[in-house]
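Bug #77: duplicate submission created two jobs. Keeping one. Sequence:
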Amino acid sequence: QVQPVESGGGSVQAGGSLRLSCAVSGYTWSSFCMGWFRQAPGKEREGVAAIGIDGTTTYANSVKGRFTISKDSAKNTLYLQMNSLKPEDTGMYYCAADRRVWLGLLAWYDYWGHGTQVTVSS
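Kept job's structure:
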């Protein structure tokens, strides 16, 4: 059973940084594309960043230049480094995985974590 598990969320002031982690067990790491999504209260879930099997990355325009997605294959862990955080970055952040080569920011991933809360105060 493939199960992503997020960690690293918390409360920070605007301008601060956080690094989210997503540990995934139950599959061959190199065979999955992965992504980070977030959902703010009263809003739809949106794609934040994604990484393909070949290492290709993409970002939502709202986070370009501030967030970096990466993975450590040896640890089966996906990361999201978030810098220069803004209050509008507040939300529940979800990690997602899928066996397809590339899904980008589309929310079609088969496997989802339960989320980790990020709160940015002004």
